[in-house]
Amino acid sequence: MTSSADRPPRTVLAAFEITDEPVLLAGGKGGTWSAGPLVVKPVEYLPETLWRAEVLHEVPDSADFRVARPVRTKYDTWVADGWEASRLVEGEPDVRRQDDVLRAGIAFHAAISGLRRPAFLDLRDDPWSYGDRVAWEELPAQGSPAAMVLLQPLIDARRPVDLVSQAVHGDLLGNVLFADGLPPAVIDWSAYWRPCSWASAVAVVDALCWCNAPPHLLANWSHLPQWGQMLIRALIYRIVTHDKAFGSAGWTSNQVNAYRPAIALATTVGSDR
Fold first, then answer.
1. How many angstroms separate the CA atoms of 102 and 168, rounded?
2. How many domains does the chain have?
């Protein structure tokens, strides 16, 4: 149960001029609240929050996707006492709509393709950033025995790639909302500087491992650049991140087995590309 201490403080509500009572939202990391027309949540990494707010404030409206527009405080800042706010966007996630998720992600990435690489990416230090660096050979692959068994065939199949990187959303599958009559809404942007096809691959492997997606989902998107190698890196990223966050105790037989079919598919595709 969430304690009252987890609720947005009154000072935060006042700063964002919120008069409605906050309601805890399901999903995410358990700290996101809706309050009338706004959503508030704790800031995880301030430089990323400030950068993301400036970008999303300026992203043009699109017929292909929506975004949750950030909201400034009455003091004209993006953050109040460690909390950020955005407009509540209509819709619900639907992980069964994998192709629609990827199409929304591709449209979003096209809209932000002109961004410069943000400096905070070199300083961000969390399990996800660690997993990303290992996937792209910026750090060596190390981990628990369970993780290394899963990683070894992926590492063996990994090959150099030559693709342009840009700002991308690294966690699309559960962060695209659907509402009748509206474009999909891209929310909770986890920023990375990688090829767009890698971001799509992360969504695909998530769907394969955790959402009972059919194997032909890989074929649906095989036209994306260096697809096999992007799948391999997406799996390395997810496995290393999980291992970094939870260690040996975090691996159940179900979790290990969930990765095995996706690894077999990715290494088969990756060996051809």
1. 12
2. 2
Only one residue has tokens 């399990």, namely 127
Compute the distance between CA of residue 72 and CA of residue 53 in angstroms, rounded to an integer.
9
State the Cα–Cα distance between residues 241 and 229, nearest whole angstrom: 18
Quick one: tokens of 55? 């970008």
97 and 81 in a common domain: no
Question: For 144-195, how does the pLDDT look when each residue is reduced to its tens digit (9 = 90+)?
Answer: 999 999 999 999 999 999 999 999 999 999 999 999 999 999 999 999 999 9
> Could you tell me if 187 and 177 are in contact, meaning their C-beta atoms sit under 8 angstroms apart?
yes
Rounded Cα gap, residues 150 and 66, in angstroms? 37
* CA dist., res. 14 & res. 74, Å (int): 8
Separation of alpha carbons 9 and 80, rounded Å:
10
pLDDT-derived band of residue 271, with 50, 70 and 90 as boundaries? Answer: low
Q: Are 172 and 203 in contact (CB under 8 A)?
A: yes
Q: Given the structure tokens 């975004």, which residue do they identify? A: 67
CB atoms within 10 A of CB 172: 28
- Kindly report the number of other CB atoms within 10 A of residue 215's CB atom: 11
Q: Considering 47, 68, 88, which residue would you say is the last residue of a domain? A: 88
| 119 three-class SS | helix
Whether residues 138 and 29 share a domain: the answer is no
C-alpha neighbours within 13 Å on the C-beta side of residue 259 = 27
CB pairs under 8 A, 24+ apart, for 244-247?
Answer: 244/127, 244/130, 244/131, 244/143, 245/127, 247/144
For the entire predicted model, the pTM comes to: 0.95
Partners of 155 in the β-ladder: none
